[in-house]
Design goal:
This protein is of the alpha/beta class and 296 residues long. A five-stranded mixed β-sheet has the order 1-2-3-4-5, sandwiched between helices. Helix 6 packs across helix 7. The protein starts with 9 loop residues before the first helix and ends in a 12-residue tail after the last helix. Pfam families: CRAL_TRIO.
Length: 296
């Protein structure tokens, strides 16, 4: 049976073939080999639909061994550190409050129309006295996991991320402990199938350099080369991300934050859905990640 995945645009298919080593004629066989290996692992119980597995293959440029390692690490870390990497609810409490601030969003138009997805985290929009770093990371984690399943631009071309510290305080920064930074770094590089193409820091504040120097050595040399610190110089950011690809709040044309948040907030009432309900626990890995695992 033909793989059950969304067809790519011609532009994305060209990138997938030339840069990710995707061979449409071999896609069914590649997915079968990956799924067969997963089924042979007694400890591992991940999602196995084609659209999900192809994200790991694409994120690993079709190296089956790397894809095996990533999906194993992905579920291992979610099981070992649920407070960091599992999303318990996307509709209640602080998760919804943080999301509604528009602090963490993915912009609707990718860079240069067909390039990487652009994400922004505006740290100062989330009051440090009300929300902690882990609660914010829950929102970022949910957005990432939805992108794995639904965002072809993020899967093929990766993500360009902007950390905007305008309005942030030292209290925001110092919530990021060395242990926390290490966990997020390992998850990003060793488990997440989405490839971070660049990380930009803008409107940096006092204390940032200390935090930056703490987590930078934890990253691979490749990832270190993709970090860009712009201070308060917006023109340095727009040299790499032209202004039109930023949201209206920055003077750009890539949607406005209230519109982006509202588009997500329209949502669904799952109690009214006809037929089989969507498996949100499977999507966000709340339960059933592993049949048996000894991680200590």
């Amino acid at each position: 049976m033909a793989p059950q995945i969304r067809p790519l645009t011609p532009e994305l298919q060209k990138v997938a073939i030339e840069q990710l080593k995707e061979d449409p004629a071999r896609l069914e066989a590649d997915l079968l080999a990956f799924r067969t290996w997963i089924e042979q692992q007694p400890h591992l119980n991940p999602r196995t639909e084609d659209q999900y597995l192809v994200a790991f293959l694409r994120g690993c440029k079709y190296s089956l061994e790397r894809a095996k390692s990533k999906i194993d690490q992905f579920y291992t870390l979610k099981t070992k550190y649920p407070e960091y990497f599992r999303v318990n609810s996307t509709t209640e409490g602080k998760f919804r409050e943080i999301h509604r601030t528009g602090a963490i969003i993915y912009l609707p138009t990718p860079l240069y129309e067909n390039g990487p997805r652009i994400g922004i985290w505006r740290m100062g929009l989330v009051p440090v006295e009300k929300y902690n770093m882990l609660e914010c990371m829950q929102v970022a984690q949910a957005i990432q996991e939805i992108a794995i399943l639904e965002d072809d631009y993020a899967n093929i071309n990766g993500i360009v991320f902007i950390m905007d510290m305008k309005g942030a305080t030292a209290g925001h920064l110092f919530q990021m402990t060395p242990s926390m930074a290490k966990k997020f770094t390992v998850f990003s590089e060793e488990a997440l199938p989405l490839r971070l193409k660049a990380q930009h820091f803008i409107n940096t504040i006092a204390g940032f350099e200390q935090m930056f120097n703490m987590f930078k050595p934890m990253m691979s040399k490749k990832m270190q080369s993709r970090l860009f610190v712009h201070g308060n110089k917006m023109d340095l950011l727009t040299e790499q991300i032209p202004l039109k690809y930023l949201p209206a709040e920055y003077g750009g044309e890539n949607g406005s934050v209230p519109e982006i948040v509202a588009a997500v907030n329209y949502g669904t009432d799952e109690s009214l859905r006809p037929g089989k309900p969507i498996d949100f626990e499977g999507l966000f890995g709340i339960e059933g990640s592993f049949r048996k695992l000894n991680v200590d």
